[in-house]
């Protein structure tokens, strides 16, 4: 008589690694929609002839997300403050490691770090990733629709940058974005953004690494790989790697004050585990309408007015990034080291 012992094993390490890399790639696509497509390039060709470029950009953005996701995965999740700081880490990695724009204004410049924390961090990471997923799994579609419409109006006006002469110099070597899109072309662009954003969140839902906490190996790969990647910037901007690592270290230190994940205080991925329903994705459509309408409205403005609007948008992102990062650090430092962020109702139940 033989006895079989059944064991309940999770995915093998290689399968988990492949799944996590796929998750980062899809997330890279999500954040690149704000950081690149809805503003920087305005042609609908990015899903046609320029599709290979879209894939490459998404993969690079996915690699840039590694350190931010690692930072979130290793802490007891306390909500929005940690996500804001993770978004800032992502923004600084994009502009300080992928490229070196972060350091162009000098080693003590506070403007670029704030601007990229606002642009890539608050809008791309916090907005298109965290808030969209959080509201979808909580099925708060009306709130998501309102936020999507406000976001759409903001980026639609922002995209009017395409009409300024300096936009041509920035996009002349690209297969897309050669000159300003017509309102109809931009409407098609933001429709593609809305549809692909919804599909990407459905894919993220399937790939969601619930309960993921960085292992020693993943820490060496992500942190070590990012550090080596950043160090290569020494040959372009000698002070760049030190400046980048200093910014990142402050953000990760503040995030870490909540301690490690535990059954009482789960990590980021456990806290945002849930299910995204395809029928709830309608809430993204007001963003499409808002962006297309705003772009059509401002496209007839004079270059002087459009230039002033662009300057205001840059200022708004600097203000958003600086305020967001400052508030997040202040909120996290207010709590004693390792204290959880339980609500009063949760605390009374424990």
Helix content: 55-70%
Supply Rg.
21 Å
Oligomer classification: single chain
H/E series? HHHHHHHHHHHHHH
Query: Which class do the helix and strand fractions yield?
Result: mainly alpha
- Percent range for β-strand residues: under 5%
Number of DSSP helices?
Answer: 14
Distance between the termini: 48 Å
Low-confidence stretches: 1-9, 171-177, 341-350
Number of domains: 1
Q: How is this structure best described in words?
A:
The protein has helices at residues 13-37, 51-64, 66-73, 80-98, 111-137, 141-158, 165-171, 183-207, 216-231, 240-256, 268-271, 285-298, 303-334, 344-349. The chain has 350 residues and is an all-alpha fold. The protein has one domain (15-334). Helix 3 runs antiparallel to helix 4 (80-98).
Could you outline the blueprint of secondary structure elements for this entry?
Elements lengths: L12 H25 L13 H14 L1 H8 L6 H19 L12 H27 L3 H18 L6 H7 L11 H25 L8 H16 L8 H17 L11 H4 L13 H14 L4 H32 L9 H6 L1
Helix pairs in contact: 1-2, 1-5, 1-8, 3-4, 4-5, 4-10, 4-13, 5-13, 6-12, 8-12
Quick structural gist:
The chain has 350 residues and is an all-alpha fold. It is built from 14 helices and no strands. The longest helix has 32 residues, at 303-334.
Task: Give keywords.
350 residues; mainly alpha; 0% strand; globular; disordered N terminus; disordered C terminus
